[in-house]
Write a structure and sequence with these properties.
Glycerate_kinase; Rossmann fold; Glycerate_kinase_sf; Glycerate kinase, domain 2; Glycerate kinase; kinase; 5-stranded parallel beta sheet; 390 residues; 39% helix; 16 helices; EC 2.7.1.31; alpha/beta; 6-stranded mixed beta sheet
């Protein structure tokens, strides 16, 4: 190497939740690297695992944004968008019917639905998409994906033949479904669910028990929703209620698996495949990944682990950068990270880390640019631990 810093760096962070998007994290690191290694080839590949930020990851990779209006979780129309390339569309549930789409933040645990998600899927199908990727996560509803299916033409009927309204609570009265009106384009379309959640639909690890409370469901609401989803599973596909991921996004995983014949893929694995991440690793001598908090949950299928796997397969060292790191040196080493640094190592105040994240990331980028991967691997790790020990 003729220069001290890395020649080609691939920046593949997830978002720093509550502070910066994944693209903003990559931009800040790139600015810092550019100051100390102006000749470095810096490739920005922000990533996501199927939840918030998934569409943005595809847009950063050059996909096209498609704009439209669709009903939010409580039915109020709002602008939204999805990513498109060729005959593949990537749609993020959270960006259409997620918690952030609740008018005034007012939760509706019994009535909120995924109907708007189905409107967006129909739009993609009607404009030629035949592979539809649904990023599951951040939903505001617990409707078992019923709203998604209703928007695509499924009729959910009560015992007297009347069609049920949207919302999870209504499913308690469901008696049968009518598939005859399903969108015709679904016949030759493939729906893929991108998620890092493996919860079943029902029970102590199901959609209601684990996630409904954060959507505003009180104990009596939770009991009602559990009964409603059990009834929904009974009339649709009881054998799929225990499928891993059926409980994702308030049970949307179940509805899509049962009626749309969808397949489930780990979110980060699918995202990296579709943005052709491995191609961009060619010639790289360092990959930088991370997220807001790197902790034990991160080790179980989160975005940084998927990036690590791809980089290690290509023989490229991987550095972790996070807002805070709650893993020991041994855990990080065993996880495959050759170096790591947290914003909290440079700025002890959590409030300042949140408010000044971009500026601190630039400082970290300067450190990355000033060192070769081989020389920096051990020293960066030791520097981080010395900073924590002060």
């Amino acid at each position: 190497m003729t220069q001290k810093g890395p020649r080609r760096v691939v920046l593949a962070p997830d978002k720093f939740k509550g502070s910066l998007t994944a693209a903003e994290v990559a931009d800040a690191l790139a600015r810092g690297i550019g100051r100390t290694a102006p000749g470095a080839d810096v490739v920005r590949m922000p990533v996501a695992d199927g939840g918030d930020g998934t569409v943005d990851a595809f847009l950063a990779a050059g996909w096209t944004r498609v704009h439209l209006h669709a009903p939010g979780p409580t039915g109020d129309p709002a602008p939204c968008s999805y990513a498109r390339r060729g005959r593949t569309a990537v749609i993020e549930l959270a960006a259409v019917v997620g918690l952030s789409k609740l008018p005034g933040g007012q939760q509706d645990p019994l009535g909120a639905s995924t109907y708007g998600l189905g409107v967006v899927v129909a739009h993609a199908l009607e404009h030629g998409a035949r592979e539809v990727v649904l990023g599951l996560g951040g939903s505001a509803s617990t409707d078992g994906g019923a709203g998604l299916l209703q928007a695509l033409g499924l009729r959910i009927l009560a015992a007297d033949g009347t069609e049920l309204p949207c919302g999870g609570a209504a499913l308690r009265s469901a008696d049968r479904i009518d598939r005859s009106g399903l969108h015709p384009a679904l016949a030759d379309a493939h729906v893929i669910l991108a998620s890092d959640v493996d919860n079943p639909l029902l029970g102590p690890n199901g959609a209601v028990a684990v996630y409904a409370r954060q959507k505003g469901a009180k104990p009596k609401d939770q009991a009602l929703l559990e009964d409603a989803l059990a009834n929904w599973a009974r009339i649709v596909a009881p054998e799929l209620a225990d499928a891993p991921g059926a409980g994702a996004a308030g049970g949307t995983g179940f509805g899509a698996l049962a009626v749309l014949g969808a397949t489930m893929r780990p979110g980060i694995e699918l995202v990296l495949e579709l943005i052709d991440f491995r191609t961009h690793l060619r010639g790289a001598d360092l990959v930088v990944t991370g997220e807001g908090s790197l902790d034990t949950q991160s080790l179980h299928g989160k975005a940084p682990m998927g990036v690590r796997d791809a980089a290690r397969a290509a023989g490229v060292p991987v550095m972790a950068v996070a807002g805070r790191i709650q893993l020991s040196a041994n855990q990080l080493r065993e996880a495959g990270f050759t170096a790591h640094l947290a914003l909290s190592d440079l700025e002890p105040s959590p409030e300042r880390c949140m408010a000044d994240a971009a500026a601190i990331l630039e400082r970290i980028g300067q450190r990355i640019g000033a060192k070769s991967p081989a020389a920096g691997d051990g020293r960066t790790t030791r520097t981080a631990h010395r900073a924590r020990g002060r």
